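Quick one: examine the sequence and fold tokens given here and explain what the tokens say about the fold. Here goes:
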Amino acid sequence: MTPEFLRRYYILRIVSNPKVYGIEKNGFVPLTDLQSALDHLRADNIDDPLYEKLSQNSQKTIKRDLSKIKSYYQTIIAHKRNYGYFVEETEMSESLQEIYEKTEIYLLHHHAHSWKDYITTSRSSLSSQVDLVPLIHAIEQQFLVELEYQGWYDDNGFQTIAGFFQPLHLKEINKAWYLVAHNEQYGNYAFCLDDRIKTFKINKQQVKQPITFNAFDYYKNAIGILKTGMPPEWIHIQVANHHFKYLTNNPLHHSQQIVAPPKEVDTHELDYSNQDIWGEIKVHIEPNYEFLMEVLKYNLWVKVVSPKHVKDYVKEHIGMMVEYYK
């Protein structure tokens, strides 16, 4: 991230949500208010070089930044004479939401030490053998990586994998980082970048016959990192009303659709025998082990209702768990 990127990012954030920055002018942001907000952000981070360009906020500079914002964020910031700047779009796109989230996460990590009294972050299991920045560069440049990976039982039975791979994609899930990489022997393989990585080296040699990889297409029907080859299918899940709201805002999977909302959206008591508190969603995924773990995470608030073989799969595991406590 560059200081210029951060200035443009904050211009967009301030104009799109001015009340957060103390600007209440009926949705408009006058130039002087925008400059003042940027100056305050700079003053709050006066010793941080990342924020040094926020004070470079002349009208000419901001006008130039608006063109960059339009190009990069696909968002138009307009200006109304005697009122100020405003965002023409009323709804935030998914891509813009993703940029917001990733930038905020970056800033949290950037300020991790100085903000440690105010923020608790999850511990990552990332191996000290791996540096993500040059690894991302290797993915971009299609450089080979050489690694040795000593798997656990769930990695095909304690299998040791070693060799040269084309790195394809990095994915973070459940507090762990995974590298999806490819070679002829193993095909596409998801390596957890924790202590199972015994050696790791980025080779400056480019892949001779690189394969193309699209993470969305590859994981289109997966709920996590596993690709089992199971045929994806629509799985119907009933959800109690208090958690239905949560899953509406935080879907299990991008394919999630609402089949029926609860008839009783708000209830003071949680009577799970009351059918009116149950809504229903469906997701189109592989019903694999990671799906099972995801369902069990939601305790008695969700229940799989179809197809029957998936329902029986969940029921079987819950039955085995109950046996532990008899």
About this structure: The chain has a mean pLDDT of 86. DSSP finds nine helices and eleven strands in the chain.
